[in-house]
Every structure is written in structure tokens, then in C-alpha cells.
């Protein structure tokens, strides 16, 4: 008999694409009644041993009753998920809700029995681990809190899947069977395991693209010219170390090669004994589906789609792009593009230039990611150029231009760079961030190991570039920048600054502090450098003028002396061209500076040169051809690989050099701070369970899925459960009720309007303070209503006066893109007019709270500006952490505003509060790992 739960709608939101341990992809989806044949075919391909482990007995085939049971689910008490590749099952998992006696049950029973079956050919790819993450998320959604599994002791692989998941387990052994029980609520350990698996899988998927053993270029023209022919030529010219194939369905049957590269009419015509790892697709968009199908059938691992005509071209192209991703993932392939410029790997073992760049970039230690092909070209050109700007022989390790980034994104490339031994510095040009919450998490982890420099285009338009499907953010650009800096990202505004910072970080150690020595042969240039250093937050010393007659030996001696000073963290050398009979030679000066820098390998050195064409090139060559240029060991704070020459970057302008140095110094300080992270302390007067019950009850009263603003008394009750006391207000609809309210609260009191257009607007006369008695109150009430309107419009309230202090504002919001964000500033003009507000991602640690209070420009007012008494900032920091804890514990709390918060010399008072609740938003980065949806 069909029960109501049997008619539960198909849960399409459980469908997901995942990256497996080996870098391939699979699709996870609910099993339906239409899967009977797929399930039977899947089971036939499973070994007898795996079947025995699943059913604890020989079970050669599934009966019709079995097939019906395993394909009919109610998606509540009985759920089955399948991992598929090419539309066929490669693994399944199911849970059945049980009661305390282990019998089938329905809610409110909160335990389920779970079982897996993985096709032998796909064991070891991490399929079961991915399925466990997803079935656990499904179970939590259906009110299940605990899993039980029975496993034969010999089934060590499945026991390891459960053991390695990070959940706290209870084990028992009875009747020859191991029984495992564990709660499935995410824990710090389970999330750490999930993120580590995600990193390894996504890094591997990018590695398969960047280090293929063979490449097929599909769409190679029969004559010179054209995109496909150009890419093939670039691959050949770069010296690609693997096999190359030229593919075009229009090739004559008797054509055997193109420019010496084997020619084929289809990838399926290539010798089956030879694997095809990567395909570069350069055919018109309408022909791409046929090519993808052939590549999938041939077992190609990844695609670089340079073809245009996708989401950048409008609605029809957008749908074509979605179908491209769906089709590629069906075969387990990842895509760079479409509309991509290509990918590059300069490693001598690979030498891959699968891009439209006609020249292979110089090999180096910088990883480069660009969403825009045009910007990618510009960045490669600047890094490659030796003269006429910021120079130094510092090249590229890998380059990815993702185009519309329909699949592979900056997040994936960050995962790869994190543990890539060939990349010391990561540079990224981003026009949009598809998953900022994940990007921030990955950036924080990457930045703790190596510098990450980001410039964001289209940041002021508020519009993502055509072809980029991203979630809209309500946060202003300045807020997003602050959050990225909090994660250790070096934020710059232009691609020039991106390259400037990258070249310094790639070959110089991080400065130990902000103390900067300046020396050179021009007093004016030295003073200019000094001024810029001050404005960039550095602590420069008085410039040392060596005069225009300074020789290379003078420069060397001065630099060695500056570097030997324990009170110097970095040195900026300024050099002007000299007019005279015997000017210092560029090569001689470069060798002198390099030799001097070698005496202090842990300190930062950089050069400002003005119209001195040969110095930059000489500095680049000095370590290998100049005198006294030994190979240096790698200091602990530098990204230079062991044994590599230490290059001194040269800049054509003081402001560019100093800005790069300032960015490096701030990043170094972040690294030091991140090494000792703060804590999220436990506070008294926090009742998480009572708050959860109150929130559930309040939401149950509302039908609007967008949420609701709480009534003042409900907001006050909820905040009190987290130790945030809001000073009560009493309504004053007329003068008599105002007097009664004041009598209840006690004088002195404040009379305030709460009408939205007058709220917190003391400048408009909507707030009257320090009313000492009833006469004062009645006069103020009469004046207020005479000036501003009727009481029904003004909604006046009476509130007891708070101790004098500094008015501040504390807010928390859930942004659809960035996640939970805490903001702080002084109330009124500083935050509203001048934007002087600090932001931190939630949860906020004790160190975050200290930093956010001190990071606003008007912070001196809190600490005794102009002789005023300092206020109680520890109480303010505690308030920030309590609000953070409330929002972090309860995702239904999507907005909190405390204004004003009056911080006195001792303690603080919250005078106004509003709270907004909504059904909990999707928190993608805390759920099971999944690729961005293509739909």
C-alpha cells in the first residue's frame, strides 16, 4: 500500500557533481524507479567478493523483489543514491530509518542503517567517501542524526571509509560482524577530513589538465592559420614532452600528418593503445557536442574549450554552455572554458603551451590565473618582458585562462597551487568569484603557505561579466576587499600592481617588519621614496644620499651597512642615471647590489631606477654572470627554492616599489598573526537550546519564506539568551502614557521617535535626552509632536538614560555570496557618511574582535582622544563575540543590528536592537563537497 511518504517529490536538489580522488568526476543523484536496468547491469559487474561483503552471503544476482526494493524509495525513511559516470552506476548507497530495536521506522526515529556497494573497477577512487558525505547530508535534512552500519571484519576498505570520515564512532563486535554507530552532525574533525579530500581531489583534477601525457587538438585546419592550427603550432614550438595528435573530421582519408603531427579524423581513430589525456577543442560551438561525445567515449580526461559562442553571447549560448558542462561531467571530464585562452605549464618535464600565446612564457615560480584572455595576454607579456618596466627574470610555473569558467575556476587552481612545489607565488585576475565563501577558506589556507595576490575587475559596476554565472552580493566592494584581506589575500587594484607585488614576492624574503632604509644617488628621489613609504604605512628612516658621484663600490658598502643594521627590515635602493665622463656601469652596479644583498639573505632589497634602461636587465643577470654572486640557501621566510639565484626586482617609480614592499610587509604581518590564531571563547549566559526553540517558534508563526523582522520584545528576548541585554523601551502614544512610562523606568529618561524615517536621527530632532522630570518630558513631547508630526506617525517611546559614552553600531548579516559577516563602526556620520566601518567573517575570534575595534579610522575616540577618558573596549569586544556566536549557532538569524551601543568608561548599554529571521540559507561550504551546478 502506498503511504504519503511514497509520494514525496523527487529531491532534485540532492543531485551533484563531485571530483573523485583521482581527479575524475562523477554525478551523484537519487535512485528512481526508472533505474531498474542500470541497477541490474551495475550489479552484474560487481565481483562475487564485493557482493559477499555487501550481503554477508553469496548473492550472484538480484531478484525482481530486490530490484524493486532498491529502486523504490520514499526519499524520507528510505533513500538510495547512485554515483554515475557516462549515465551508468559505478556505486550505490542507501539508508533505511530504524528504531531502537533496529526495525524499520518513521520519524521521529533519528537513526538509520547505511550500506554501500562500489563497482570493483572504481574502488580506490574515493567514491564511497563522497557518497557518505552526501547520504549524511540527506539524512540530516530528513531528521536523522545517527548512522549504523554492519560490516564484515574482512571488509577493511569499507571499515576504513567510516573510520576516516572524521565522525566519532562506537564500535561493537557480535556474531562475526562489526557494528559501527556514529553521529552524522558535522564536527571539526569531519569537516577537516572533507576539506582535505576536496583539496586532494580538485588539485588532482587540475594536475591532469596541466600535466597530460598526450594532447589532441581538435579543429586543426588543413592550411596555416586558424585557432586550432595555432594551438598545435604553439604546443610543438614549446617542446611539449608528450604525444600530439591533430584532429579534424574534414581531413582527407589519406592524410597522415600535419606539420609532422599524426593526423586523424576523430579522436576515436587514434590507436586505442595510446591514451589521450587532454583535448583542446577549437571547433565551432554547434560542433562541440559531437566532439565531447567522442572524447568521452575515447576516455579523454579533460577538455580545454577555446571555442566561443557560449554564455558570453546571450541566452541561447548560456543554455549551450550548461549543456556542455552536463555532457562533459557525464563522462567524468573537467573543462577549462569555454571561450578560454588556454593553459600553460613551463615545467621541463611537461612544457605544455595549450594556449593561443604564440610564445612559451619564461619558466619561473609564479602561478597565474586570469578569467579574461586579454588580461592573461597582458600579464604574460609583462612577466616575460625584461626591460621597460618592472623586470627581473622571474617567470611562470603554470598559467590558466578559464574564459567563462563554466567548470574549472580559480578555486580549483588554488587547490592545485596549494601544494604545487613549482609555485611560490599565486597571482589571480578575477572578474567574478563564484563561491566567495569557499574562495575565502581556500585563500586563507593558501596564504598561510605562499603569497596570493588578487586584482578584481568589474568591481564597481556590480555586474558580473557576460558568461559568468555568480551569486549576487549585497556587500559593497570595500567590504569584500576587507574580508579578502582578513583571509590573507594581498589585494591590489591594477594588473601593474599585481605584477609589481608578484615579482617582489617571488624572489625576495618577506620583510620582518615595516622598518625601511632608503639609500641612493639622488636626494630628491630618496625624499620622494620616503614620503611614499610614510603614506603606505611603513616606517622609513631618513634617506641616505650617496651623491651623484657614488660608485658601485659605494652602493655596495652602503647597502651592506644598511642590511647589517638590526633595526632595518628592508632596503630600497634608488638609482638615477649619471651624466659624466665615467658613469657607473649598469652591470657593475647590479653585481655590487647583488653581492651586498647576499650578505643578508633574510632581508628584503629592491631597487627604484629612473630611465636607466640597462640596470633591470643587469640585475636579472647579476646572480649568474656577475662577480661575487654565490648561490644562496633559502631563508625560512622566502619563497625562493633552494639553490635558486636571488633576484633583486627593479621598479621605474618609487610609488610602485614602495607599494609592493608595503603589501609584502602587511602580508608578512598577517602570516605572523595567523601562526597564532585567536580563539572563540565560551561565555556564560548563553543558552543555545533555548534560543533554537524560540527561533523555531517564531518562524513557525510566519508564512513568508523571505523571513521576518522580529518585534522589539522578541528581539530583546532572543538576544538576552546570548547575554546581550537591550535597555527596554516603553511606548508613549500620548503625553500621559509617556509620563507613566518614565515613572516606571525612572528619571532621567530619553524620548525618541521610532518611525523608520526618523530612527537614529538625532540631527532631525527625533531624540530628546536627559529629561530630568515630568515637566521636562511633557515639554519635550509637545515640542516633538509640534515639529515632526502626530504621535501615530512618530511612534514615540521612552527609555531610561544610559551612562555617557561613545555611540557605536554593531551589525551582522548573512550575505548570499560571502556568508556571515560582522560589522562595527561609530554610530552616525563616521559609518554612514564616511564608510568608516570594519568587517570580519563570522565566527569572530578574540583576536578578530580586538582587531575590528582598532581598525576603524575613528578608533582613537575609543581610546582617549584629545584627553578624553578611554571607554570599556573589552566589554565592546565581548559584545562583538556574543553577536558572532548567536549568528554562527543559528543560521536562521540572517540579520542583527544593535544601534546605538553606548560604550562608557565601564560597561556598555545597547539602546536599540533589531533581528531578522529567515529559513536557514544553503551553506554550500559546510555541506558535502560538490562542483558548482551547471544548471
Keywords:
single chain; 935 residues; alpha/beta; 8-stranded mixed beta sheet; 7-stranded mixed beta sheet; 27 helices; 34% helix; flat; disordered N terminus
Quick summary:
The chain is α/β, with parallel strands linked by helices and about 950 residues long.
Walk me through what this model shows.
- This protein has 935 residues and is α/β, with parallel strands linked by helices.
- The chain is built from 27 helices and 39 strands.
- Helix 9 links the parallel strand 14 (302-305) and strand 15 (334-336).
- The longest helix is centred in the first third of the chain and has 23 residues, at 188-210.
- The model is unreliable at 1-6, 386-392 and 623-639 (pLDDT under 50).
Write the layout of secondary structure elements.
Elements: E1 16-19, E2 25-30, H1 36-44, H2 48-55, H3 64-71, E3 78-85, E4 88-98, E5 111-118, H4 127-141, E6 146-151, H5 156-163, E7 169-174, E8 177-183, H6 188-210, E9 214-218, H7 227-238, E10 243-247, E11 257-258, E12 261-264, E13 278-281, H8 288-298, E14 302-305, H9 315-330, E15 334-336, E16 342-345, E17 352-355, E18 363-370, H10 373-384, E19 396-401, H11 410-418, E20 425-430, H12 436-447, E21 452-456, H13 477-486, E22 490-492, H14 495-507, E23 515-520, H15 523-535, E24 539-540, E25 544-545, H16 552-564, E26 570-575, H17 586-597, E27 604-609, H18 613-625, E28 650-651, H19 654-674, H20 688-700, E29 708-709, H21 712-720, E30 729-731, H22 735-745, E31 749-753, E32 767-771, H23 774-788, H24 791-794, E33 796-800, E34 806-815, E35 819-826, H25 829-832, E36 837-841, H26 846-854, H27 873-889, E37 893-903, E38 908-910, E39 913-917
Parallel strand pairs: 5-6, 9-10, 9-13, 10-12, 13-14, 14-15, 18-19, 18-20, 20-21, 21-22, 23-24, 23-25, 23-26, 26-27, 27-28
Antiparallel strand pairs: 1-2, 2-3, 3-4, 4-5, 6-8, 7-8, 11-12, 16-17, 16-19, 29-39, 30-33, 31-32, 31-33, 34-35, 34-37, 35-36, 37-38, 37-39
Helix pairs in contact: 6-11, 8-9, 10-14, 11-12, 14-19, 15-19, 16-17, 17-18, 22-23, 26-27
Amino acid at each position: 500500500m502506498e503511504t504519503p511518504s511514497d509520494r514525496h517529490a523527487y529531491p532534485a536538489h540532492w543531485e551533484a557533481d563531485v571530483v573523485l580522488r583521482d581527479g575524475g568526476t562523477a554525478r551523484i543523484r537519487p535512485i528512481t524507479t526508472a533505474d531498474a536496468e542500470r541497477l541490474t547491469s551495475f550489479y552484474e559487474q560487481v565481483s562475487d567478493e564485493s557482493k559477499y561483503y555487501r550481503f554477508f552471503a553469496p548473492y550472484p544476482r538480484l531478484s525482481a523483489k530486490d530490484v524493486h526494493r532498491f529502486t523504490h524509495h520514499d526519499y524520507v525513511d528510505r533513500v538510495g543514491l547512485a554515483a554515475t559516470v557516462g549515465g551508468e552506476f559505478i556505486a550505490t548507497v542507501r539508508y533505511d530509518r530504524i528504531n531502537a530495536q533496529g526495525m524499520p521506522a518513521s520519524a521521529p526515529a533519528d537513526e538509520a542503517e547505511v550500506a554501500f556497494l562500489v563497482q570493483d573497477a572504481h574502488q580506490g577512487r574515493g567514491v564511497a567517501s563522497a557518497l557518505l558525505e552526501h547520504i549524511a547530508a540527506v539524512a540530516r535534512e530528513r531528521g536523522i542524526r545517527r548512522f549504523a552500519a554492519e560490516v564484515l571484519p574482512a571488509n577493511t576498505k569499507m571499515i576504513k571509509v567510516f573510520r576516516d570520515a572524521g565522525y566519532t564512532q562506537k564500535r561493537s563486535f557480535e556474531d562475526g560482524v562489526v557494528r559501527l554507530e556514529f553521529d552524522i552532525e558535522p564536527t571539526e574533525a569531519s569537516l577537516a577530513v572533507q576539506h582535505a579530500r576536496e583539496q586532494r581531489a580538485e588539485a588532482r583534477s587540475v594536475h591532469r589538465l596541466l600535466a597530460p601525457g598526450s594532447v589532441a587538438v581538435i579543429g586543426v585546419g588543413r592550411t596555416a592559420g586558424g585557432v586550432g592550427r595555432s594551438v598545435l603550432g604553439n604546443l610543438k614550438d614549446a617542446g611539449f614532452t608528450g604525444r600530439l595528435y591533430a584532429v579534424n573530421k574534414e581531413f582527407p582519408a589519406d592524410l597522415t600528418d600535419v606539420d609532422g603531427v599524426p593526423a586523424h579524423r576523430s579522436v576515436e581513430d587514434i590507436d586505442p593503445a595510446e591514451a589521450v589525456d587532454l583535448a583542446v577543442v577549437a571547433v565551432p560551438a554547434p560542433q562541440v557536442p559531437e566532439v565531447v561525445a567522442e572524447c568521452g567515449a575515447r576516455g579523454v580526461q579533460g577538455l580545454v574549450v577555446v571555442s566561443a559562442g557560449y554564455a558570453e553571447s546571450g541566452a541561447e549560448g548560456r543554455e549551450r554552455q550548461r549543456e556542455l558542462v552536463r555532457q562533459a561531467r557525464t563522462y567524468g571530464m573537467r573543462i577549462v572554458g569555454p571561450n578560454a585562452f588556454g593553459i600553460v605549464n613551463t615545467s621541463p618535464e611537461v612544457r605544455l603551451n595549450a594556449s593561443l600565446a604564440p610564445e612559451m612564457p619564461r619558466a619561473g615560480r609564479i602561478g597565474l590565473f586570469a578569467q579574461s584572455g586579454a588580461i592573461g595576454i597582458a600579464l604574460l607579456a609583462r612577466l616575460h618582458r625584461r626591460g621597460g618596466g618592472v623586470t627581473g627574470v622571474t617567470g611562470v610555473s603554470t598559467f590558466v585562462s578559464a574564459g567563462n569558467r563554466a567548470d574549472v575556476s580559480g578555486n580549483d587552481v588554488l587547490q592545485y597551487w596549494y601544494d604545487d612545489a613549482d609555485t611560490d607565488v599565486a597571482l589571480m585576475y578575477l572578474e567574478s568569484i563564484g563561491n566567495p565563501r569557499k574562495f575565502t577558506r581556500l585563500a586563507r589556507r593558501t596564504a598561510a603557505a605562499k603569497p596570493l595576490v588578487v586584482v578584481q575587475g568589474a568591481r564597481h559596476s556590480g555586474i558580473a561579466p557576460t558568461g559568468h554565472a555568480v551569486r549576487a552580493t549585497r556587500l559593497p566592494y570595500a567590504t569584500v576587499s576587507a574580508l579578502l584581506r582578513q583571509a590573507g589575500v594581498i589585494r591590489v587594484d591594477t594588473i601593474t600592481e599585481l605584477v609589481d607585488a608578484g615579482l617582489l614576492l617571488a624572489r625576495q624574503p618577506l620583510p620582518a617588519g615595516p622598518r625601511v632604509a632608503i639609500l641612493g644617488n639622488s636626494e630628491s628621489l630618496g625624499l620622494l621614496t620616503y614620503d611614499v613609504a610614510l603614506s603606505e604605512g611603513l616606517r622609513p628612516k631618513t634617506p641616505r644620499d650617496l651623491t651623484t658621484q657614488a660608485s658601485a663600490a659605494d652602493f655596495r658598502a652602503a647597502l651592506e651597512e644598511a642590511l647589517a643594521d638590526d633595526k632595518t627590515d628592508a632596503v630600497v635602493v634608488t638609482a638615477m642615471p649619471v651624466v659624466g665622463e665615467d658613469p657607473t656601469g649598469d652591470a657593475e652596479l647590479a653585481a655590487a647590489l647583488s653581492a651586498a644583498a647576499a650578505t643578508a639573505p633574510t632581508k628584503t632589497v629592491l631597487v627604484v631606477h629612473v630611465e636607466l634602461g640597462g640596470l633591470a636587465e643587469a640585475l636579472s643577470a647579476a646572480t649568474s654572470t656577475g662577480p661575487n654572486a654565490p648561490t644562496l640557501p633559502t631563508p625560512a621566510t622566502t619563497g625562493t627554492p633552494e639553490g635558486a639565484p636571488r633576484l633583486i626586482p627593479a621598479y621605474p617609480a618609487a610609488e610602485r616599489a614602495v607599494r609592493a614592499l608595503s603589501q609584502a610587509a602587511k602580508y608578512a604581518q598577517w602570516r605572523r598573526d595567523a601562526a597564532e590564531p585567536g580563539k572563540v571563547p565560551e561565555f556564560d549566559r548563553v543558552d543555545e537550546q533555548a534560543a533554537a526553540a524560540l527561533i523555531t517558534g517564531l518562524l513557525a508563526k510566519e508564512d513568508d519564506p523571505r523571513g521576518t523582522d522580529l518585534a522589539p520584545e522578541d528581539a530583546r528576548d532572543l538576544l538576552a539568551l546570548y547575554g546581550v541585554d537591550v535597555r527596554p523601551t516603553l511606548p508613549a502614544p500620548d503625553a500621559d502614557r509617556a509620563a507613566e512610562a518614565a515613572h516606571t523606568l525612572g528619571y532621567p529618561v530619553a524620548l525618541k521617535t521610532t518611525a523608520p524615517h526618523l530612527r537614529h536621527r538625532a540631527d532631525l530632532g527625533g531624540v530628546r535626552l536627559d529629561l530630568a522630570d515630568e515637566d521636562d518630558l511633557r515639554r519635550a513631547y509637545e515640542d516633538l509632536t509640534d515639529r515632526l508630526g502626530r504621535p501615530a506617525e512618530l511612534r514615540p517611546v521612552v527609555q531610561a538614560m544610559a551612562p555617557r559614552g561613545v555611540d557605536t553600531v554593531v551589525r551582522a548579516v548573512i550575505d548570499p555570496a560571502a556568508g556571515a559577516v560582522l560589522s562595527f563602526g561609530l554610530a552616525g556620520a563616521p559609518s554612514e557618511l564616511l564608510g568608516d566601518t570594519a568587517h570580519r567573517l563570522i565566527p569572530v575570534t578574540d583576536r578578530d574582535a580586538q582587531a575590528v575595534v582598532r581598525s576603524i579610522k575613528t578608533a582613537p575616540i575609543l581610546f582617549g582622544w584629545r584627553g578624553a577618558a578611554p571607554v570599556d573596549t573589552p566589554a565592546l569586544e565581548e559584545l562583538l563575540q556574543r553577536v558572532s556566536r548567536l549568528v554562527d549557532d543559528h543560521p536562521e538569524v540572517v540579520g542583527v543590528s544593535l544601534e546605538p551601543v553606548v560604550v562608557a568608561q565601564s560597561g556598555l548599554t545597547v539602546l536599540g536592537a533589531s533581528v531578522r529571521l529567515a529559513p536557514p540559507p544553503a551553506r554550500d561550504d559546510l555541506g558535502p563537497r560538490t562542483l558548482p551546478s551547471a544548471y
